[in-house]
Specification:
Layout: E1 2-8, E2 12-18, E3 33-40, E4 43-51
Antiparallel strand pairs: 1-2, 1-3, 3-4
């Protein structure tokens, strides 16, 4: 499982636990930052930190996915 965290302007905040094989779609401001945290024996570990626009499907087709494992 992974924890999705997204923070943007004007008090935008989203946090969700995503289970393996679960699809999670959400809307966020284009300038927001996205973090994917994986679970490890020591606790949560930051796996991906990126701009939401890097994963946007608004204009570009998806070429890469981040899966919960």
């Amino acid at each position: 499982m992974v924890v999705v965290k997204c923070v943007g302007k004007h008090h935008f905040y989203l946090e969700k636990v995503v289970m393996p094989k679960e699809l999670f779609w959400f809307e966020a401001p284009r300038e927001a930052r996205l973090e994917l945290w994986k679970m490890s024996p020591q606790g949560q570990m930051l796996d991906i930190r990126a701009n939401v626009s890097d994963y946007s499907i608004e204009n570009d087709p998806i070429t890469e996915s981040a899966y919960a494992s």
